[in-house]
Design a protein that fits this description.
The structure holds 2 protein chains of 2 kinds. Chain A is mainly β. In chain A, the strands form 2 sheets. In chain A, strands 2, 4, 5, 6, 9, 10 and 11 form a 7-stranded mixed β-sheet that branches. Chain A has strands spanning 4-7, 10-13, 18-25, 31-37, 44-50, 53-57, 64-70, 73-79, 87-94, 106-107, 111-115. The relative contact order of chain A is 0.33. The model of chain A has no long low-confidence stretch (mean pLDDT 92). Helices cover 0% and strands 55% of the residues of chain A. In chain A, strand 7 (64-70) and strand 8 form a beta hairpin. By secondary structure, chain B is mainly β. Helices cover 0% and strands 53% of the residues of chain B. In chain B, the strands form 2 sheets. In chain B, strands 2, 4, 5, 9, 10 and 11 form a 6-stranded mixed β-sheet that branches. A 5-stranded antiparallel β-sheet of chain B has the order 1-3-8-7-6, with no helix packed on it. In chain B, strand 4 (33-38) and strand 5 (45-50) form a beta hairpin. The chains are: A mainly beta, B mainly beta. Chain A binds chain B through residues 2, 4, 6, 31, 40-43, 45, 48, 55-56, 88, 90, 92, 97-100, 103-110, 112, and chain B through 31-32, 34, 36, 41-46, 49, 87, 89, 93, 95-100, 102-105, 107.
Chain lengths: 116, 112
């Protein structure tokens, strides 16, 4: 099973709201990722977690706050977002971080976020 | 040097035809090259991947051709079907790093 699930599928929020995106995988993967994807563009890496610890922050604004409560779950907390933050937010996981034989990243279906 | 150049940007193919998407890279440290298929509103799904020690890999109607000396790789979709209509992203990765370098994407439309 190579499934990564994400909730909610769609989210509309105002600029003063606080909301959270959730990602879950049960493949025993120890690396998890958040990506942002704008229309007709490739995914852009935001955060990388390895063994539940934040490994990489790709200079993402502090209004995005990731959290990894356990090895299966990854959250993205959103606060005071701007309309330009509207995008498809993708979660991905891989068996390990930076392992030659386990590099494949599996993506979830994404959360379509609209900021009004 | 970290870029992956993908072409064409869009492609229209008749049903039953061959779809060919090309990618080129500069960084010789890349050692893993996956292709992802993405339908509108969905996340990218791994289609097929190759490492540079092989020149070709085939899975069903999908084939990756890899030319290490030219630093190019391509995706061939044989007997293209309307259900193949999607955006395709090539990517490159270096073991020991964390980051996929994605191509800019190719929007494929297969006409019935």
């Amino acid at each position: 099973d190579t499934e990564v699930t994400q909730t909610p599928k769609h989210l509309v929020m105002g600029m003063t709201n606080k909301k959270s995106l959730k990602c879950e995988q049960h493949m025993g993967h120890r690396a998890m990722y958040w990506y942002k994807q704008k229309a007709k563009k490739p995914p852009e890496l935001m955060f990388v977690y390895s063994y539940e610890k934040l490994s990489i922050n790709e200079s993402v604004p502090s209004r995005f706050s990731p959290e990894c409560p356990n090895s299966s779950l990854l959250n993205l907390h959103l606060h005071a977002l701007q309309p330009e933050d509207s995008a498809l937010y993708l979660c991905a996981s891989s068996q390990e971080l930076s392992s030659a034989d386990t590099d494949t990243q599996y993506f979830g279906p994404g959360t379509r976020l609209t900021v009004l | 040097q970290q870029q992956v150049k993908q072409s064409p940007q869009s492609l229209i193919v008749q049903k039953g035809g061959i779809s060919i998407i090309n990618c080129a890279y500069e960084n010789t440290a890349f050692d893993y090259f996956p292709w992802y298929q993405q339908f509108p509103g969905k996340g990218p799904a791994l289609l097929i991947a190759i490492r540079p020690d092989v020149s070709e890999k085939k899975e069903g109607r999908f084939t990756i051709s890899f030319n290490k000396s030219a630093k190019q790789f391509s995706l061939h979709i044989m007997d293209s079907q309307p259900g193949d209509s999607a955006t395709y992203f090539c990517a490159a990765f270096t073991s020991g790093t964390y980051k996929y370098i994605f191509g800019t994407g190719t929007r494929l439309k297969v006409l019935a």
